[in-house]
Structures are given as structure tokens and as C-alpha cells.
Amino acid sequence: MTEERERARRPGGRSARVRAAVHQAVTDLVAERGYGNFTVGDVAARAGVADTSIYRRWGNLEALTQDVAITRLTEQSPIPDTGSLEGDLRDYAAKVARDVSGPDGPAVLSLVVALSTAGPDGARARDDFLAERTRQLQVMLDRARDRGEQPPDTLAVLDHILAPMYVRVLFGAGPLDPDYADTLVDHLLALHAAPPPAP
Amino acid sequence: MTEERERARRPGGRSARVRAAVHQAVTDLVAERGYGNFTVGDVAARAGVADTSIYRRWGNLEALTQDVAITRLTEQSPIPDTGSLEGDLRDYAAKVARDVSGPDGPAVLSLVVALSTAGPDGARARDDFLAERTRQLQVMLDRARDRGEQPPDTLAVLDHILAPMYVRVLFGAGPLDPDYADTLVDHLLALHAAPPPAP
């Protein structure tokens, strides 16, 4: 089978391939130059497509980078369903640690952060991402409650699992190995089992 | 006394005033437009100084924004010395919560994050900031150890005090009131007093 025919059989075909190439080009350019330091022309050249294809599909660079950030963050670290709260949290924390410390992790996270200072549209895209991720986490925590477990709330997962990993990546501080992800889950479970007394 | 003479007596004089005006202009522009969406000319117009003054002093926009990010983050949230570890942590957490949730907080944090994808110079500036802040925190934790207390390490302060607040601001998630800052300190002290058992 020729490479051309193999490509043609992939789900989504040419349109999906263009989208994937453009998304990867944006991620690479953010990693190499930082958000704000490249143009639609740079993305097109890197992805091997015409500028007009990008303008027709996304309208402008801001809309394109928002699409990349939301898509990458939503597709990565899918929510697990292992049958127990502890199993779900350990599986999820390990996935997040692997994704955010991978080659594209810092660039994707930085994109989301850049959105938050990129005006109302950027803030809306960031809020949409957070709402979607919160909804996914809530499904996992609701399952635990239905089994009779006592889950933490989604903000506690953000504060004690996601935030430490995000900040370690963004600030280049400390390792993000599987043991570290497990320790964060230990801490969340310990805090939730025995909350500190009110002051 | 004329306003002119009063100004002249301020520490640093005209040079310090120009620096403060330029720093505030950068912070405002990051908040309004996002990092990467303004020029040296925009900063000069906003600060009421000549473009050449900025080029002479800082060289280029990247060096200027690095100076702003490091200065703002280093000057805000000074390390307290209250006589006890708990007092120091509560005071410090309250200051950080106030600073990062203040009008310039998100812009300054976003600047630091933008640095981390702005090439080797940006990463170096970010690492310098983290090293300086870690050194300051270590002084506070060493004082606790000298008093016979059992302090956490600086990474635990980053993970459980600073990270949750930074991420809530950056992602626009949840409130950052004084009670929340106190709860984070409660959690850190509880974790450190009774670490979870090894798996």
C-alpha cells in the first residue's frame, strides 16, 4: 500500500491531517519562540499549508491558538474509571504528570496562561476549558460518592493535585516523577480523611 | 515647597520615577493586551517617556519585561519574621494571597510564565527569580529550625501554599480570601505534622 493510500484511509482524511499539522506547528512555535512571537505565516510554513487555509478555517491567530490550547488540554489526561476513588486519583495524577512534563506540556500550559491575559475572548476560552475539566472531574467524584466513598471536591483536586504539578512545570521547579504524583494523591487523601481543625 | 522640589527630594529622583512609570506601563499593557501584543513605543507612550530612554536603559522589550517581572515578584510578599513558624507561614500566605489577587497580580504572574517559553534568557530570568525566592523562604525555615521547630522544606511551601494560589489566579478558579490562605497553611502544617504512610 502506498503512503498516499494509507493516509487517505485515516479517519478525517485531509482536513484532519491539516488540523493536526497546524496544531503541532503552533505548539512547536510556542515552545521555541514563546506566545506572541510568531505569525500565521510562520505557522503555515511550519505546517506546510497555505496561509489562506488557516485564515479560512480559524479566522485569525488568536482563535487558532485558543483552539490549540483547549484541544490539547482537553484531549490529554483523560479521566479514568478504575472502580475506586484512590485508583482513579492515582491513575489521573500519573497521567497529568506525564502529560505536563512531556515535550509539549509547558508550551500548552503557557498558552492557556497567555489566554488569560489576552482579553475577553481569551478569558472565555480559558473559562470554558476549566468548566469542561471540572465537569469531567465531577463525574469521577460523583461515581465515588455513588459507591459510598467520601470524595474531595473538584477545587481540592485542582489545589492539591493539578496546581503543584502545573507550577513545578511552569516555574521549572522540582521533578515530576511517578512517586511525586503518588505523594500528592497521598496528601489529598490524608487531608480529606482528617481535615485540620477549624482555627 | 513646589511639586518640582518635592519630587527632586524623593529617593532616586527622576531616574527612579522613569523606572516606576515604565514598569507600571508594562504591567498595565500585559493586563490589557497580553504579553507579546505591545511594543516599546506603546510602553513609552503610556509611561510618558521617549522610546530612546527605554532602549538606552533596557536594550529591548524582552529585557524590559524580564526586569519588570522579577522586580515585581521579588518586591511583593516580603518574608515575615513573627517569632514562630506558624505565624510566619500565616503572615506570608496572607501577603501572597493579597498580592496575587490584586490588580497587577495576574499580569505579573503571566509575565513570569511567558518568560519560561521565551528562550534561554527568559528561562534564566525565571530561574533567578525562583532561586531568590527559595533563598528567602529558606531563611524563614532555617530560623524555625534554630528555634527547635520542625519546618517543611521550600518545595512543600511552593506545592501547598504558593501553587494553589497561583493556579487559582491564572485559571480564574475559586476565591482567594484570607480564610483560604489560612486553610492552605492548616493543610501544610497538618501534612508536615503527620505525613501519610508510605504506600
UniProtKB/TrEMBL annotation, chains A, B:
Keywords: DNA-binding, Plasmid, Transcription, Transcription regulation. InterPro entries: Homeodomain-like_sf, HTH-type_TetR-like_transc_reg, HTH_TetR, Tet_transcr_reg_TetR-rel_C_sf, TetR_C. It comes from the Bacteria. Residues 16-76 form the HTH tetR-type domain. PROSITE patterns: HTH_TETR_2. SUPFAM superfamilies: Homeodomain-like (SSF46689), Tetracyclin repressor-like, C-terminal domain (SSF48498). This is TetR family transcriptional regulator. It comes from Streptantibioticus cattleyicolor (strain ATCC 35852 / DSM 46488 / JCM 4925 / NBRC 14057 / NRRL 8057).
